[in-house]
Amino acid sequence: MTATTLPDRPLVELRGVRWRLWPVLLAAALMQAVLWPARELARWIAHQQAAFFDGHVWAFVGLAMVFQTLACLAALAVMRRVLPQAPTYLQWPARGRSLAALGLAIGVGMGLLMLVADYAPQLAAHRAPAGYDTSPAGAAGWIAVMACSGLCEEPIFRGLLVGLLTALVPGRVRVGRVDLPVAGVLVAVLFGLAHYESFLVDPLPLAIAQQLYAFAFGLIYVWLMERSRSLLAPAIAHGVGDAVEVAAVIGLQLAWTH
User: Fold this and answer.
1) What is the pTM of this model?
2) Contacts of 101 (CB under 8 A, 6+ apart)
3) Which candidate, 131, 157, 146, 154, places its Cα nearest to that of 252?
4) Which of 46, 131, 179, 207 could staple 53 via S-S, CB 3.0–4.6 A?
5) From first to last of its 258 residues, what are the pLDDT tens digits of the chain?
6) Is position 42 within any domain?
7) How far apart are CA 246 and CA 239, in angstroms?
8) What backbone torsions phi and psi does residue 111 show, to the nearest 5 degrees?
9) Please, are residues 156 and 34 in contact by the beta-carbon 8 Å criterion?
10) Interhelix angle for 204-228 vs 232-256, to 10°?
11) Which residues contact 167 (CB under 8 A, 6 or more apart)?
């Protein structure tokens, strides 16, 4: 009998990578070009209508998300003309490949993980987190806006930026059995950096935790996108995760302060 041995595979493997810095800088600049002007436009409108928006912060967040989505769709239209080989995944998944249920389950787990990472000191002290309107209308507004966050951010990060870098920085990286495009890893880093404001408002350990889970979630989102060939599953996971965390915080505010 002849023994058959499998060839050893390295734990980490890069394949077909064509590394160039300028596309990464372009993606970072494009990210800010989509996010920052839209947010500032929403802020300007909120200042003009302060009597309404001061009592409905969730409406300001939702308005910024609408403007960011419109800016992303415009950028995607330009990219399709200038770089037609760049995939956008802005399509409905094939039948039986939506991974919607998996995205939902992953989103619930993400929401609970973010709750612990973001509010560990308050949870340990049995102290209600603050920051959200707990009135029926306010709570519904916050949860609805957060549930739509995936519809806003996934076209930007996974559709636009991963698509751009897939065309300009091709290649794949494998860690163990997980195989992802290099573009997805780079955008996961940018996804974490997009949450830089946490370093300005949160204690350093919490800000670092947010960077780490944002990076990890970015990898999961691109994994879902590649396997479903669509942004639907990552958008569900993203939106459900944000909504679960906010709903849990509002629930704790109601339970621990009344």
Assistant:
1) 0.92
2) none
3) 131
4) 46
5) 455 555 567 888 989 998 899 999 999 999 999 999 999 999 999 999 999 998 899 999 999 999 999 999 999 999 999 999 999 999 999 888 899 999 999 999 999 999 999 999 999 999 988 889 999 999 999 999 999 999 999 999 999 999 999 999 999 999 888 899 999 999 999 998 887 778 877 788 888 889 999 999 999 999 999 999 999 999 999 999 999 999 999 999 999 986
6) yes
7) 11
8) -60, -40
9) yes
10) 140
11) 83, 85, 86, 87
Q: What is the DSSP string of 7-74?
A: PP--SEEEES----HHHHHHHHHHHHHHHHHHHHHHHHHHHHTHHHHTT-HHHHHHHHHHHHHHHHHH
Within a domain: 228: yes
Residue 199, in any domain of the structure: yes
**How many domains, the chain?**
1
Quick one: DSSP state of residue 229?
T
- 16 belongs to a structural domain: no
Q: Token digits for 147? A: 């549930």
